[in-house]
Amino acid sequence: MKYRSKKGQLPFVEINGEEIADSTIIIKELSQKFGHDLDAALTPEQRNIAHASISMVENHLAWVVMWWRTKYPELVLKGYKVNLQHALGTRIPNGILNFFFKFAFGRKGSKKVKAQGIGVHSAEEINAFGQGDLKVLSDMLADKPFFFGDEPTTLDVVVFAQLAQIYFIDKEVSYALRDYMTESCPNLVGLVNRMKERCFPDWDDICTTLDLNSHLPKPEEGKDNKEGGKDEKEGDQEKEPDDKDIEKEKADEKEKDKGKEKETEENKEKETK
After folding, report:
1. Which residues, in sequence order, are bridge partners of residue 12?
2. Who's near 178: CB < 8 A, 6+ residues apart?
3. Which of 94, 204, 225, 269 is deepest in the core (most CB within 10 A)?
4. Are 71 and 120 in contact (CB under 8 A)?
């Protein structure tokens, strides 16, 4: 399993061996490849609004979320209920994995958010940045199902990708941005749930198994093993005896011969008497 693209980014997809990284490029390439443009019905003005809004979400709000993750890596593990042993497919104890995650993720992430610029501000200032972005999105959405009407567009997809990371944190974990969104931007909560139900009806299975293709049919478990075991048994019945079997048969024959000779001698002794 790959955890990063060749560019070192997530998300990325692979189509016929070709790797495509960065969500914007992925959406563009998939739209062209499969002939389906999410923004086909938008006017030029709406496309411009969408472009500016996506830039705000990906280059500002996303860094606010990233700052919180790097500041509180232990809450990331708890809030998203991350089982590193399961996620990485390893037998290393979770205690060790969690320790290295907190150290490595927090340290590297902290450098990134400071290099980007947002990490140099105070926690109150960064939370205010995030709340400002959420307020803008909430005002844009208003009472519509999606940003530009009754059908989702690229803007809805991008916004969902970021808001889901804010909203679906375990309620036991304290997170100011989630609380603000829930209390002051309920229409954004509605958008998140609509996108989830529409695009990910198997959401619970994905979160439990980490299988991003849980909607695809899987081969029945144990069927192949049973068939394989049956073939092996049939093969065992048909296979020729090995050297050990032959030696055992010879030994049995010798024992039988000795028994016959002993019986013959006893009969002779009886006749002589």
Report:
1. 21
2. 166, 167, 169
3. 94
4. no
| Rounded distance between C-alpha atoms, residue 30 and residue 228, angstroms | 40
Which tokens in the block code for residue 76? 């990331």
DSSP for residue 13: E
In order of 225, 236, 246, the CA distances from 241 in angstroms are 26, 10, 7
- State the amino acid at position 48 in one-letter form: N
Contact 20, 28 (CB under 8 A): no
* SS3 state of residue 265: helix
Pinpoint the alpha helices (H) of 4-145: 23-34, 44-56, 62-71, 73-79, 84-88, 94-116, 123-141
Q: pLDDT tens digit string along 188-240? A: 999 999 999 988 877 777 677 766 566 666 666 555 555 545 544 444 444 44
Task: Name the phi and psi angles at 258, rounded to 5.
Answer: -65, -40
| Ramachandran angles phi, psi of 122, nearest 5° | -75, 165
| Under 8 Å between Cβ of 147 and 156 | yes
Could you give the CA distance from residue 25 to residue 12 in angstroms, rounded to a whole number? 9
Distance CA 39, CA 154 (A): 7
